[in-house]
Design brief:
heterodimer; A: 297 residues; mainly alpha; B: 275 residues; 14 helices; 72% helix; 0% strand; globular
């Protein structure tokens, strides 16, 4: 598959990949190695120098109730964003992938939230849910005869609203990929299934869903990265991790410890734990992707 | 036939309802941005736009020096998108058109970048910025983002579909590889380039954590941090009309980019999923 189209050029290919390779080495690989290194050190109170502490930072992680709480919050939050988000998106994508008039309009009208940043989404949802003055507490209070929703004091409500806002922001992105995935399913396959008497349900579960599985795997990974990291702006704008650490996901705790409390060693240990989690999932995703490739060959 | 038409009508109705529900937060933000401070707190909420958008936008603009933040965001988003696309095109060209010892490095490279998002290396990367004296500079906001294996993989996949005859013909005519790259490869990659531009532009425009960490001077802030400052500048009650006007300004540009390039964007995504 990969052939040599311009033989005899020894230096040129290296020059072409050099800039990318340099950026990856200087800003990704070396800092990551440094993260591992620093996770075994602690800064002295005045930050003048760093002392080797062995695995003390890691022990501290497992003794820190705030950290363990943060792990659980992150799991709940990302499970919500991934499963609720992907389910809604796949349903909407199937509805929007039909031969009807104005489908071009519907598709752009469904994917545009992709262009919003997490911070913009957070600001808008913070306004809608503002205690006492927002539209959502008003509607909820009307519907329930006066229940006053205040997510600035109720941490479960805060986690739910933050999760919903994050899911909403990601809908556009997920729908784009599901629509593209659905359009790549060969039409003949669906037609022959329908000739064979497959109804809409069995054609979904027997054909569409299996054919979409690479898209689903890809989106699982992307949504996980989103829920782990990119929502930082949304959390910072909406709750700053509160109330009472109720929405303090791992990346927020990492920021707090690393850049506000200046415990760089402790924060580096947190980085490394997050890395292990991602690496496992990335390898898992890779395994599925390569398995499939082998199968197709 | 009747059943089918009914089915289509239901699809239309469902789609319209879904579009309205998903758009509601932004529509509501848009309405709020046009109200006066007093009208933004009326119950039940006012659902008809008022006439104060310009004055709210001007107030938001002045309050957090938004003009400067806007230009900063625009500058770093365009620079990162353009450099990333250029580097990706170059690397993908190397990986598909030449035989060299490091050719099998593509795969580990893409795994590494996927597994090392900023937060897992944020503290040493920040220290590196200190070392380079890059804190509060455009370098810190752009250079660490320059490598993109997503881009390399996207272009690689496309380049592999280019018929070999094309490069063979060029070679027979004595065309040098780089001339072939600029005159053939780059022009026929237009669709993928625009798709990647949309993705990278929006990605950079949305950056929040990194600018928060490496920037502390008012002139170097980006627009996302401007939103944080608008919220923090609130007086007794949050002035949602002004905050929303600022939010609308902050979302305008990436939306425009997505709408302008929507055709190539969807095509590019379709190509990416078609593995």
């Amino acid at each position: 598959m990969q052939e040599e189209r311009f033989p005899g050029h020894k230096l040129l290919p290296y020059l072409l990949i050099l800039p990318s390779a340099l950026v990856i080495i200087i800003f990704l690989v070396i800092p990551f190695a440094q993260t591992i290194f620093e996770s075994f050190f602690q800064a002295t109170p005045f930050g003048t120098h760093k002392v080797f502490v062995g695995i003390a930072n890691y022990i501290q992680l497992f003794e820190d109730m705030d950290y363990l709480h943060s792990v659980i919050i992150t799991l709940i939050f990302s499970a919500f964003v991934i499963f609720v988000g992907l389910t809604i998106s796949i349903l909407i994508a199937m509805l929007a992938n039909q031969k009807i008039k104005g489908i071009g309009f519907y598709q752009i009208a469904l994917i545009w939230t992709y262009a919003l940043s997490p911070a913009v989404a957070g600001t808008i949802w913070a306004m809608m849910f503002a205690p006492a003055t927002g539209i959502m507490p008003y509607i909820i209070s009307k519907l329930t005869n006066g229940y006053a929703l205040n997510w600035m004091t109720n941490s479960s409500a805060a986690l739910f609203i933050v999760s919903a806002a994050a899911t909403w922001k990601m809908l556009g992105y997920n729908i784009v990929f599901f629509i593209a995935g659905l359009q790549n399913i060969p039409q003949e396959l669906l037609e022959s299934a329908s000739v064979d008497g497959a109804g809409p349900w069995s054609s979904f579960f027997r054909i569409k869903f299996p054919m979409l599985s690479p898209t689903v795997t890809f989106l699982l990974f992307v949504n996980m990265l989103y829920a782990f990291f990119q929502v930082f702006g949304l959390i910072d704008i909406m709750t700053k991790g509160g109330p009472g650490n109720g929405t303090q996901i791992l990346v927020y705790k990492l920021y707090q410890d690393g850049f506000v409390n200046l415990k760089t060693g402790f924060a580096s240990a947190q980085s490394l734990v997050i890395f292990v989690a991602i690496a496992i999932l990335a390898l898992f995703q890779l395994r599925i992707a390569t398995k499939r490739a082998v199968y197709e060959r | 036939m009747v059943k089918r038409r009914g089915h289509k009508l239901i699809t239309h109705i469902l789609l319209i309802v879904i579009v309205l529900i998903t758009a509601f937060p932004v529509l509501f933000a848009l309405i709020t941005s046009t109200l006066s401070f007093k009208d933004a707190f009326v119950f039940p909420p006012i659902m008809i736009p008022g006439g104060h958008f310009i004055s709210n936008a001007v107030e938001a603009w002045n309050r957090v020096n938004m003009g400067r933040l806007f230009l900063n965001s625009l500058f770093i988003s365009i620079v990162v998108a353009v450099v990333k696309i250029t580097l990706s095109l170059m690397a993908a060209f190397a990986f598909t058109h030449f035989k060299f010892v490091g050719r099998n490095l593509l795969f580990p490279m893409s795994m590494i970048t996927q597994m090392l998002p900023l937060p897992v290396r944020i503290i040493p990367t920040f220290e590196l910025m200190n070392l380079f004296h890059w804190i509060n500079t455009y370098y810190a906001l752009t250079v660490p983002f320059f490598a993109s294996t997503t881009g390399i993989l996207l272009f690689r996949q496309f380049f592999l579909t280019i018929p070999r005859d094309l490069s063979d013909a060029a070679r027979v005519d004595g065309v040098k590889p780089m001339r072939y790259f600029f005159q053939v490869i780059v022009p026929i990659s237009r669709t993928n380039i625009s798709a990647l531009f949309v993705i990278e532009f929006i990605f950079m425009w949305s950056q929040y954590l990194w600018p928060l960490v490496v920037i502390n001077s008012a002139n170097m802030r980006v627009i996302q941090i401007g939103l944080k400052m608008l919220l923090a500048s609130e007086q007794i009650a949050p002035e949602w009309n002004i905050i929303m006007a600022g939010t609308i300004i902050a979302m305008l540009f990436p939306l425009l980019v997505l709408i302008i390039f929507r055709k190539s964007f969807s095509q590019g995504i379709a190509m990416q999923t078609d593995k």
